[in-house]
Amino acid sequence: MVPAWLWLLCLSVIQAFPEARAAELRVEVPENYGGNFPLYLTKLPLPREKAEGRVVLSGDSGMAAEGPFAVDPDSGFLVVTRALDREEQAEYQLQVTLETEDGHVLWGPQHVIVHVKDENDQASGHQATATIEISVVESTWVPLGTIHLAENLEVLYPHHISQARWSGGDVHYHLESQPPGPFEVDTEGKLHVTRELDREAQAEYMLQVWAQNSHGEDYTAPLELHVVVTDENDNRPICLPRGPSVSIPELSSPGTEVTRLSAEDADAPGSPNSHVVYRLLSPEPIEGAEGRTFELDPTSGSVTLGTAPLKAGQNILLQVLAIDLAGAEGGLSSTCEVAVRITDINDHAPEFTTSQIGPISLPEDVEPETLVATLMATDADLEPAFRLMDFAIEAGNMEGIFGLDWEPDSGHVQLRLRKNLSYEAAPHHKVVVVVRNVEELVGPGPGPGSTATVTVLVERMIPPPKLDQESYEARIPVSTPAGSLLLTIQPSDPMSRALRFSLVNDSEGWLCIKEFSGEVHTAQSLHGAQPGDSYTVIVEAQDADEPGLSTSATLVVRFLKAPPAPTLSLTPVPARHLCTPRQDYGVLITSEDPDMVSGHGPYSFSLGPNPTVQRDWRLQPLNGSHAYLTLALHWVEPREHVVPVVVSHNARMWQLLVRVIVCRCNVEGQCMRKVGRMKGMPTKLSAVGILVGTLAAIGFFLILIFTHLALARKKDLDQPADSVPLKAAV
Fold first, then answer.
1. What pLDDT does 536 receive?
2. 374 vs 413: CA distance, rounded Å
3. Is the pLDDT of residue 453 over 90?
4. CA-CA distance, 705 to 712, in Å (whole number)?
5. Could you tell me what percentage of the chain is helix, strand and coil, using 3-state DSSP and rounding each to the nearest 5?
6. What is the pLDDT, as a whole number, of residue 535?
7. CB 645 within 8 Å of CB 607
8. Which of 322, 351, 457, 547 is spaced 20 to 30 A from 407 at the CA atom?
């Protein structure tokens, strides 16, 4: 097999006659070439202006329709696309023309003969050569003209440059190279290359060779040779640096150029070896995603955005493969890397985490600068400058009662009170706070989440109730009966709001207090109380409309020795009537002091100790000298009732016997009394007897009548038939 490197020799044959057609091109190709394809053979002498035509390659009858040869339209080189076998075909005759679309020949034909060289013709040491067969002019120079030598060859197979036989004796050769190069001519007139050629170091050499005798005299004029070092694909494309990274805004439209890659190839400019194309390696398309993130122009190396969406903050490593030989198989390559960063733009408006706050209750006497609420807003942008926020009160602050405090780089804002609140002026407030970006927003404006509403309720401040005394004291005998009035708890301002009273720690249950009047009574007899002892309870007064407002005072009851039991004097009270079922009125009772004491009250009224009386009747004191007696039950038996009422005053006690007639009443509330039996009127029994006797007499007479009729009918039936009188026919 031939090694991967190959040099190529091309020769343009001088026309034999001026009127002859273009000289044939002869090219040798080693058989079974194991290198990369296509293999560039020789550059065709096509005219420079060939834009209007197309290159047509044809061959002899021995070449298959899909021949192994082609012409590169860009470079004009004749190439072979696969390995050739000398045993299959040793020589190919080709013809190249430049034709129009309708077949008119613009240039040519150019004949090319390709000779397949046998592998055994190679020199030892794995040397490669390509020679051109030329005519030999006897005893003169061989007209080589221009020689094309492949670079990077260790030893060049020698080329004959002269005829070995010269008249006049021995021949010596003298060679001069401009610039100096690795060439020499042996005694047989063969040109040698003494070391590797490097096109990058020197692409062309001009040689002059003289044929001299032993005395140094020239036989002929010098032979001029033009040596061209042909390019080999031995240099990889080198990516030019583009900087550490490329930044692209987040919402850039598809087709926006991200970067333009450039790779340099040190091979011959304009040759296929330096023709670089580009291929995108990464990022690869995401499975299931629509479109690609990047698009690459393989010719220019321009990288543009695809249709896939971008996310701010992404760091994408862009890897592009640069390949020479126009991307054909066997081309050398290198990887170009560019870091692409997707930069953020201010396309997200800040939003509050909560749109409704409250209601928040504040007393109207709260001090200014009091913190009302703390609101928090967030921004989805990444750049710190795009997250800077500005806050303002948009509505609900006409009087400037509220204000905002916040730090420039914070998403928290504090709503504070700037002025005093007034329940009468505004019992509630709805403060609308708006948040905006400091930087200009890109895209749609702020949405509903950019506002938050804080509801503030103002609590009316009512002073707590105040009693006429801070503490109270009552002195009562231990024999004080239940229901006795001890004292009355009153507010300090009679015109103040209504109060509700209660006892907090009445552990013995001796006392009770009227809920709205504040009168303290004995709830039961004071069993266990000893003279000289004291009993302390707490009286609590609450505002009837605002239960949270209250006050309290202590009530100390001091027990006295019971006075001698007075003799109850019974004082009758004129009879009065009440309706049953119960109606909304009662009987007014006065103290009826039997001793006609001229002193003023207060008098204490209570029902007698009879349980039935206490169950059926209710006694309510009206003032210090009168009480009100009503039915306690809905229904009381209609009759005359005697209700005992105990009256006490200054340790004196007496009992009133109140006669009350309970009766059914008409719609006008008048008592309907039971009517008694009139004199001379029969009783129920006598009336029943008279009725029964009357009915018996009537029945007796009816029996007699029916018996008489029955006997008369029987008498008529017993008479003979002829005795029956005839009835006149009508």
1. 93
2. 6
3. yes
4. 11
5. 10, 40, 50
6. 93
7. yes
8. 457
Judge residue 707's burial from the number of C-beta atoms within 10 Å of its C-beta, 0-12 exposed, 13-18 middle, 19 or more buried: exposed
Q: How confident is the model at residue 168 (pLDDT cuts 50, 70, 90)?
A: very low
**Please, are residues 379 and 411 in contact by the beta-carbon 8 Å criterion?**
yes
Residue from 499, 504, 539, 520 nearest 621 by CA: 520
**Secondary element (H or E) of residue 717:** helix 684-718
CB-facing half-sphere around the CA of 37: CA atoms within 13 A: 12
Where do we find the tokens 């005829």? 163
Confidence class for position 3, pLDDT limits 50, 70, 90: very low
621-638 pLDDT, tens digit per residue, is: 877 778 888 888 888 888
**Amino acid identity, position 569:** S
Q: Calculate what percentage of the chain has a pLDDT beyond 70.
A: 77
DSSP 387-423: G-EEEEEEES-TT--EEEEE-TT-SEEEEEE-S---T
Write the single-letter amino acid at 522. T
351 forms beta bridges with 378
- Of 619, 639, 645, 633, the C-alpha closest to 583 is 633
Q: For residue 96, give the nearest of 135, 67, 118 by alpha carbon.
A: 67
Read off the tokens for 677: 């039996």
Answer for the pair 562, 526: CB distance below 8 angstroms, yes or no.
no
The number of CA neighbours under 13 Å toward the Cβ of 151 is: 19
Task: Count Cα neighbours of 176 within 13 Å in the Cβ-side half-sphere.
Answer: 7
Token pair of 656, please?
């009133």
Name the DSSP letter for residue 705.
Answer: H
CB atoms within 10 A of CB 638: 19
Question: Taking all residues of the chain, what is their mean pLDDT, rounded to a whole number?
Answer: 76
3-state secondary structure of 450: helix
For residues 42 and 115, what is the distance between their CA atoms, to the nearest angstrom?
Answer: 13
All residues at 6 or more sequence positions from 620 whose CB lies less than 8 Å from its CB, including other chains: 627, 628, 630
Assign 716 to helix, strand or coil.
helix
User: Does the N-terminal peptide bond of residue 38 adopt cis geometry, omega within 30 degrees of 0?
Assistant: yes
At position 293, the amino acid (one-letter code) is: T
Enclosing H/E stretch for 616? helix 611-616
Please confirm whether the linkage preceding 109 is cis (ω < 30° from 0): yes
Sign of CA dihedral 713, 718, 719, 721: positive
pLDDT by residue (tens digit) across 427-437? Answer: 999 999 999 88
Q: What phi and psi, each to the nearest 5 degrees, are found at residue 694? A: -60, -45
Residue 675 pLDDT? 61
The amino acid sitting at 425 is: A
pTM passes above 0.70:
no
Mean pLDDT of 131-138: 28
